[in-house]
Amino acid sequence: MLCYLISSDDQWMTLPSIPAGLAIPPGLEFLLPCAGAHVRQRTDMIEMFTGIDTPNKYAIYNDQGQFMYYAQEQQNFGGFLAAQYLGDNRGFYFTVTDGLGRQAFSVSRSSKLWTDCEMIVEAPPGIPAGFVSYNSSLCSRGVLTIWDAGRNPVLSVPFPSECDCGGDRGYMVMTGSDIVGSIVRKYPGFMKQAFTNCDNFALDFPVDLDVRIKCTLLACAIMIDFIDYEDKRN
Q1: Cβ–Cβ contacts within 10 Å for residue 212, how many?
Q2: Is the Cα dihedral 15, 21, 25, 26 positive or negative?
Q3: What's the Cα-to-Cα distance from 71 to each of 84, 156, 158, rounded to whole Å?
Q4: CA distances from 187 to 114, 158, 165, 170, 190 (A)
Q5: β-strand 128-137 against 117-122: which pairing, if any?
Q6: Contact, 129 vs 149, CB < 8 A?
Q7: Which end of the chain is less enclosed by CB atoms within 10 A, N or C?
């Protein structure tokens, strides 16, 4: 699975040293020195040629382009059927593993059939690291609200207008009215967009942000991919 998600040319990030007395969930050490990341969806040839919706896969890199994690959507038979009939509205569950083979965190989202939904990020799995709620209205395309493990609101990510004009599309990361970062979907070009539904996201955020919130922002890129791009391949 790891060989499928990353290239032999990829450079792997070395495990950073952790300051004494700083408690970090295993696997999230890689996020400590990061001021950004890249989330890159991987092409599935079966899906590309048959139209059958297969589990999503992403490789995650730091702001220097070094490999940190791979994320794999887990599906049972019921999940497979939900993918075919509910598409991007399905609930999902991802395991996210680092280069050492540790499951660093997990990401789960409820179904979005009724527009609003919630995502839970656990690091390590079983221990909440953050929550993300998606709410929309007639006057807004929606906003992601990021909550810490104690259910305190920390950040928000408003959705931009529907038109992306064929270029990069930015989702601002905000605290109150201040912009502190961004999640940018990189425009893949007409031909690639026409034949695949694979998307790349570039994130930037404060380097001193808690690593639990950083991994929750990584999960937000996956959630944005589902909401805005997952079912746009046709």
Answers
A1: 22
A2: positive
A3: 20, 23, 24
A4: 29, 19, 10, 11, 8
A5: antiparallel
A6: yes
A7: C
Question: What whole-number distance in Å separates Cα of residue 83 and Cα of residue 46?
Answer: 14
Sequence-ordered alpha helix ranges (H) in the chain: 2-5, 45-50, 77-86, 190-195, 211-224
Identity of the amino acid at 201: F
Query: What's the angle, vertex CA 55, arms to CA 54 and CA 61, rounded to 5?
Result: 130
Tell me how far CA of residue 155 lies from CA of 30, 180, 183, in angstroms: 21, 9, 13
98-139 per-position pLDDT tens digit: 989 999 999 999 777 666 889 999 999 999 999 999 988 777
Q: Are 185 and 229 in contact (CB under 8 A)?
A: yes
Asked whether 123 and 212 are in contact (CB, 8 A), the reply is: yes
CA distances from 16 to 13, 30, 82, 189, 226 (A): 8, 6, 39, 35, 31
d(CA 154, CA 146): 6
What is the DSSP code (8-state) at residue 225? I
Query: Tokens 């589990």 identify what position?
Result: 55
CA dist 24 and 31 (Å) reads 10
